[in-house]
Amino acid sequence: MMHYLSYLPVLAALIALGYQIFALLGAIVYFAKSAFLLSKPTGSYTPPVSILKPVRGLDSALHDALLSHMTQDYPDYEILIGVRDMEDPAVPVIRQLITEHPEHPIRLIHCQTDTPNAKVGILIDLARQARHEIILVNDADISVPPQYLRRVAAPLAEPRNGLVTCLYHATAHSIPGNWEALGIATDFIPSTLVAPMVGINEFGLGSTLCFRKTDLAAIGGFDAVKEFIADDYQLAKRITQLGRETVLSEVVVGTTLNAPTWRDVWRHQVRWARTIRVSRRGGYLGLPVTHAGLWAIVAMLTGHWPLGLTLWLARATMGATAGFVVLRHWPALLAAPLLPLWDLWAFTIWLTGLAGRTVHWRNKQMTLNRDGRISES
After folding, report:
1. What total number of domains does the chain contain?
2. Are both 299 and 208 inside the same structural domain?
3. Lower CB count within 10 Å: N or C terminus of the chain?
């Protein structure tokens, strides 16, 4: 029995190595496909679009993020910006932008629908006032390139496509925030690239969710996801259950992480972990496969140095490719040899997320139910 157990570190390392190779392939395929699509002119399908932007609080990136939406190379779109409190510090910035850009149909809307997920309450009110059939939702701090709308709306010309989403690269202004941004670029984004390769279609990122209003109505509107913490995932899941496909756009957008302390980053990561656990339990249990650094160290500690070093190199290569080549995230290239250390952090987060239902979100302590619904603790 002990003889067979001695092979477990080798088996774990080989499985982890297989995932790294698969993720590297996913990054290369996405980069090649995106480069090809970006080299081609956009098509003629440019339906009117309603952009819904829920805003809460003021951060350093808000002005530039909103401005990037107001300067789109697109014939017909509206921007509906929703806030729950007209005394929100973001309101003066929004009003200034509206004044400076009278040529665009931008509206600031006071949203009062109360829901467990406050962001979805804002979206419910914004959707009621949206004039167009194509709806686009993204987070307040998302910055986009000038042809964003043209390229994100284009896949919806095909009836089988129901939702378009985008990868994102993150920047930060603190050491803890940059640590989290590194993990997003070299761990989370690669897992997103692997998902469609293994047949997972029900994924959507808060960086962009573009879909038809008729499909939204068919799933029960935003009311259907108002009790869930992972509203983006739940929305994507329900639209794909209509028989629609999710499309990962060639456009990469930007976001800014505002976590100033290690405690903030820890809480954010644990919230993500516990949310994934209640949303996709099977997928969560398999996440340690992605923690290559852990298995590389285990392999080396058990005397399998060649395998451990090979896995370490594979992890660094995959992280640098996904982070730098795909996302242009410079730290991913510079820190590539140290990326296995992120995996130790990620495994600790995974262990913490394995149990417990309490999460910290928007300055509140919330309780997660078994299906991902939330209630205030």
Report:
1. 2
2. no
3. N
